[in-house]
Amino acid sequence: MLGYIIGKLVYKSDGHIIVDNNGIGFNIQIGTSNIEKIGALGTEVKVYTYMSVVKDKERERMGLFGFCDMEELEMFKKLISVSGVGPKSAISLLSTLDVKSLCSAIISEDIKKISSGNGIGKRTAQRIILELKDKIDIIVPTENVKEYDNVSKDAAEALIALGFLKSEVLKAISAVDNGTLTTEEIIKRSLKLLSGR
């Protein structure tokens, strides 16, 4: 499998690029939000890639999907692990929402925002939330959750280790942390919320 491709960007349009690597032109499908970020024509670019192979009754279809960074690639992999989310729908969603915005929408269960991608309906958005909200590996700000400093991160990790769901922990810490508390104080106050006392 191809992890990434480095080569000269020889073509780009809405939805795909061609990267020349030692005389071989790789046709890569890419999100519209990455078309400008990827670089200018004629320059050397590095594109992280995912090879998709879909088998149906009649034939085998292959597609090469590209990303500007590993964070976006990993989010793409999480999305296509959800039943009903194919590579094209995942690319569309990541073109509509960047990784942090998408993680925020999943944690805050924002169905409307998630269903803004082409091919992502309300039911699929609900499945994305259900299957991914406790698999999000990065802590990101949402309307209800502040961006964490190291103290808050330590508290979050401790609470998750105690068996609480990550999404619940993030909301609890956001509610109690005023920026002046120690790790221990955040944990104690969050535990009261999480245990309903």
Structure description:
The structure is a single chain. Mean pLDDT is 84; it is low at 138-147. The chain has helices spanning 70-80, 87-96, 99-107, 111-114, 122-132, 150-161, 166-176, 183-194; strands at 4-13, 16-21, 24-30, 44-55, 60-67. The chain has three domains: 1-68, Nucleic acid-binding proteins (OB fold (Dihydrolipoamide Acetyltransferase, E2P), Beta Barrel); 69-138, Orthogonal Bundle (DNA polymerase, domain 1), CATH 1.10.150; 150-194, Orthogonal Bundle (Helicase, Ruva Protein, domain 3). With 197 residues, the protein is an alpha+beta fold. A five-stranded mixed β-barrel has the order 1-2-3-5-4.
How many structural domains in the coordinates?
Answer: 3
**Beta-strand segment tally:** 5
CATH fold label of the largest domain: DNA polymerase, domain 1
**Uncertain residue ranges:** 138-147
What is the name of the CATH superfamily of the largest domain? 5' to 3' exonuclease, C-terminal subdomain
- Give the overall average pLDDT: 84
Q: Give the name of the CATH architecture of the largest domain.
A: Orthogonal Bundle
* Coarse shape: elongated
Major beta-sheet overview = 5 strands, mixed, barrel
